[in-house]
Amino acid sequence: MPKVRKLRPLFAFLFALFRAPGAGGRFLLLSVLRGCFAPIQKSGHRLYAGLVVLTLVTVVAPLTPSFAADKSAMLEKIRSQLNVADGFALSVFAAVPNARSIAVAPELGGIFVGTRESSLYFVTDPGADGTKATVTRISSDFTSANGVAYKPGTLFVADQDRVVSFDLSGFDGKKLAAPAAVLFDGLPDKSHHGWRYLALSPDGETLFVAVGAPCNICKVSGLEGTIITLPVTGGTPQIYASGLRNSVGLTFDPDRGDLWFTDNGGDGLGDDVPREELNHATRAGDFYGYPWFAGNKTRAPDFKNEAVPHEVTFPAFTFNAHNAPLGIHFYKGDALVALHGSWNRTVPDGYKVVRVKFTDGKPVSASPFLSGFLLANGAVLGRPVDIKPYGDDGSILVSDDHAGVIWRLTPGS
Question: What per-residue confidence (pLDDT) applies to 68?
Fold first, then answer.
């Protein structure tokens, strides 16, 4: 107990910094934290340092009364340091704590935003331009409300252990009623990689749900390490793709209807392996290598002497190790991919949205589309998660769970 009392003044000081008016206190707090935990990182305990910082940011921050009120100045300061592709203007669409997956609902005049927490948000945008957006927490009844998908009249949410649907016929934008149906309640109820990603098939009849492996590198069972399909009316899921570690981004080629998805490789094998994946599924039933392959063509040490039980479909394109590719959106024949950024690499990498150039239907190279989230001194301003088209003007929304914001990229005239 005496040790705890000695730490109280430090926590009080850090808390006061966070509550300081405007953005200055937040940036000073981040600087202090960086200095405090640098010795821990150098000693090899980067994980513990990261967990402490993550706890302060994701638990303490949202509980402070000033979280929403002081947000605009901080976000404007971040926005001014970001670099966006030529021809686009960048603006703040809405401040949403822990913003993850986005489901655009034009008929309702807004968007649904999932989180890796209990909360689900609806952002009302009456002018369809983000200038008068209103953010409302419409539910806090989930374990991890990460996966969201929408079709007119219905919202789908993939929680940690189940997939549910909501009837939106009486939705007022303020509160979500109880689920109209539980479509499936047999997802692995495990928190490790337990945040599900959800996508609706092009015909609107099937849900694709990513189910991560509940570990770093291990053998899985049941639905673990797969992408499953589920009728929008509910029923027995089918395994569409297997041999995956943790896919947190799915989309469909708008021309061919094929599924494309990202997959995050294993940790603890070095700074530069395994490379992260962008996969192309042309049919159901393919196997993508995990856990015999930790990612791309890097064999997992624990299973390197075992025969791989199935033919492996290797990725169509790869990114640097630990870049953590998440959301995908096809744009003018290319693909935009959100690189969430490394959490345990010696030199941080990722932290941007890239444009993956396609030639003859195949990805060939990647270049920055929205960058600047990672500063030269290693400080992180944001971590992009999901990407969705928005409105009739060609705008693009990008969620950012680190800064707690939805960014809007608007093309020039």
Answer: 53
Q: What is the mean pLDDT of residues 353-361?
A: 97
Whole-angstrom Cα distance, residue 108 to residue 153? 9
pLDDT band at 107 (very low <50, low <70, confident <90, very high): very high
pLDDT tens, residue by residue, 32-57: 444 444 444 444 444 444 444 444 44
The encoded tokens of residue 401 equal: 């769970």
**Is residue 182 within 8 Å of 164, Cβ to Cβ?**
yes
Asked whether the beta carbons of 241 and 263 are under 8 A apart, the reply is no
- How far is it, in rounded angstroms, from Cα 291 to Cα 71? 42
- Distance separating alpha carbons of residues 251 and 237, to the nearest angstrom: 19
| CA-based nearest residue to 155, from 146, 164, 142 | 164
- The DSSP-derived string for 366-406 is EEEEEE--B-TTS-B---EEEEEEETTTTEEEEEETTTTEE
Q: How many CA atoms lie within 13 A of 108 on its CB side?
A: 23
Q: What is the pLDDT of residues 162-187, one digit of tens each?
A: 999 999 999 999 999 999 999 999 99
212's tokens: 């991560």
For 275-307, the pLDDT digits (tens) are 999 999 999 999 999 999 999 999 999 999 999
What does the block give as tokens for 374? 């990672």
Helix (H) / strand (E) containing 319: strand 317-319
| CA–CA separation, 124 and 112 (whole Å) | 9
Report the DSSP beta bridge partners of residue 155. Answer: 150, 166
Which residues have a Cβ under 8 Å from the Cβ of 236 and sit 6 or more positions away? none
Note the residue count of the chain: 413
Token pair recorded at residue 225: 């390490």
CB 392, CB 411: distance < 8 Å: no
d(CA 292, CA 307): 8
C-beta of residue 398 within 8 angstroms of C-beta of residue 384: yes
The C-alpha angle 343, 349, 351, rounded to 5 degrees, equals 85
Distance of CA 323 to the CA centre of its chain: 12
